[in-house]
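User: Okay, second chain of the day. Same drill as before: sequence in, structure tokens out.
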Amino acid sequence: MAYTIDLTGKTAVITGSNSGIGLGIARMLAQAGADIVLNSFTDDEADHALAAEIADATGVTARYIKADMSKGPECRKLIEEAGACDILINNAGIQHVAPIPEFPVEKWDAIIAINLSSAFHTTAAALPMMRRAGWGRVINISSAHGLTASPYKAAYIAAKHGIVGLTKTTALETAEEPITANAICPGYVLTPLVESQIPDTMKEYDMDRESVIRDVMLKRQPSKDFATVEQLGGTATFLCSAAADQITGTTVSVDGGWTAL
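Assistant: Same drill. Structure tokens below.
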């Protein structure tokens, strides 16, 4: 049997998607025919322009809906306002680095809320829609740090490990239905934010661009190459295909071999 990926008639809600990984996934899903709901906590003209750009480029319907993913009621309202949610991409996330004794409590609370609790709230709101539609995909963006750890990132690593656990539970609760739940675990991804950090890192270590990428930024990534947002979008799109109907409750690492170490 030949599998093609045609998501026409499906609606994808992607949290934290006005830039970076979320936007890359949104673009790829739109290219496969899915209608798109972009999201972030801002509500600027540029946010709505991104949705219009995707719609113009692909012919799908694309909207932007503001929601603060640190607040459970707003997470659930996002799904309700979308009106349909066949594909849920839980991507919203923030980071803070500090030793545990000095880790600010407010940063811990914010990271757990945005990186983990938001996915619980959106999933709880989306599953009834998927069940009514008779099909669904929950794709949680975890991290290589959802499977391994590093010092000074306690909240982020706890949340990303939690996302993997939530994914497994969601998969078990939907295992006899045409709904799957999986987590994508990226390593370092070349996003605009990461790109903007390269010059400062070059100055800090007094290295050229190639050396600072290879020996500093990608020290733990054996491929010594960044993943791209297009690769993550392609992975998410595959997980939405019929070829992935029996892939559920697992993690897909896009990390250049990081978790093979």
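The mean pLDDT is 97.

User: Thanks, on to the next one.
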